[in-house]
Amino acid sequence: MANSGPLSDLSYRNYDSSPVAKGGRWKVIALNHIKRMFKLKSYWILMVLSGIHFLILAAATYFIDSFAGNMGGEQFAETFFGRIVWRDQFMSGFQVGHFLLMAILLLVGAGAIANDNRSNALLVYLSKPCTKRDYLFGKFAGIFSLFFTALAIPAAFFYFYGMMNYREHGFISDDPSMGLKILLALVLVSAYQASIILGISSLFNQGRLAGATYAGLYVMSGLFAGLPSVIGNANDVSAGVQQMLDKIHYLSIFGGCEAIYKTVLQTNGSFAMQDRSSQMLVARPEIWLLLLVTVVPAGLAWMAAIRKVRAVEVVK
Amino acid sequence: MPVVTLDHLTVQYGKFTALRDFSASVPEGCVGLLGPNGAGKTTLLKTLLGFIKPTSGSGNVLGMQVGVAGPEIRAAVGYMPEQDCHIPGMNAVQFVTYAGELAGLPHNHSLRRAHEVLEYVGLGEARYRQIETYSTGMKQRIKLAQALVHGPQLLLLDEPTNGLDPKGRQEMLALVRDVSANKGVNVLVCSHLLPDIERTCDSVVVIAQGQMRLQGNVATLKGLNVTSIDAELRETSGAFIQKAVELGFELVHAKGAEYRLSAVGTQEELSAKVFAAANAVGAQVRGLKPGQKSLEDAFMEAIDG
Question: Measuring CA to CA, how many Å separate A180 from each of A172, A187, B210?
């Protein structure tokens, strides 16, 4: 209490120190979100687990490179390093760990706006000199940074590991711009996924509901879009039909990510231990399809967020 | 110098008009915005903060134009909303520090201010507890702390005693009064509770159905009404009333043998007329004093139009 009680602090005074900063509220919001999420152990555990493909691949390449020759497997080692397409491994890393990456996204993004809706926190944000644009961009930047970090740390680990050990096997020379391409792909995938979860989060008053909706959308769209292509391949359908089924393959959140990876890395994908000719690979999408499966959902999500985030209820 | 001026301000939500041709001038100090539920008080506060664009009219807050300089106004104003509001997963220090940073304070300044303000509002010992675990009274205080952290020139308090028990209410009102009277912060308290306004505010703006009904100093509104007089007789007398009306009085209200009468004239003239009426009908006057309105009277008159 001001005038009574044992904890009176009569030294309270008005703020008259350094000038109040004019802009950049989105940075405050983003940094706060990042700091809070970095404290979660589950974030770091999921990140390590999502990078399991890179860990296994690093171990496999190490053993094949170090021991195969000594055990009479020179031919195997030569074939392995001859077949491996290094840049594809970064996309494979995403494909293998995508469910765990989805869990990371749910952790860092599902409650970003939904929990604020539940606790009326928007009144706190928007009653400060902070605009709706600051709020939304701050939240987006927070989710984006966290998801990008989760994607980038395992990828960076394998990139530097490969650069130090497998240059003679074409790690850099096969595609000198691989590092930049990977970086661009990670940025785009992070922005795409962060936009969608931001939009979904803005529609709910509970992070759990937003998370369940995103997870449902992710899994169901992945299933329904992915199955036709697999069935078509298994049943040896005509090339025209298969092409159409391959397009459907990208009509999901996971498909959107894959479309970005394939377009940016200029690849259809491959697996290290398989003969490429025997793989049932889905060809990379045309630009229009890439835009349809990425820009349109992300744009819709942003529109939803812009529409839903407001400091007053609209009575009509 | 007024801290808020409003000139024929109209705010509409679709077809619904929440504020109609609202003009007022809010002076420095602690001012009450008084009105029944649904009168448009919260809409007015949200318009001042720039959450809602006025349909027509204009306004100024601390010399900045309403609807144009939203962020600048919000940098100079602290807002304590009516509803519970906090940022999930934070303790009080983190929350108030964050609020300060959102208002533009550097982190280290904001942290120091958070501790000061939390101490001031009486949450010193509970500052490291999660806000979700706070009682209603504590949540009210934390809302006040986040509104104060950046040292605003004007505080907008929306129903600050909402949900508080009598003790908590007294403490909150004392805080509001202290902020205004001793810390030099202008305060606009929005409430439908007359005693809260009466206790904390120097002046009042009465709002009803989105329109400004009355504005003035609390002391003046409660003050002496030179055109009315309270007369107490030994016993009730219909003949006295009849005679008083003949002499030009109007009966404001009667309570037993106590009558409030009003007429045009000075207090002395009215007193002489009362004695004349009593003398004419043989009634005995036991008490005579100038009529005094309560704030409630003024409020009810204003609401009734």
Answer: 12, 11, 60
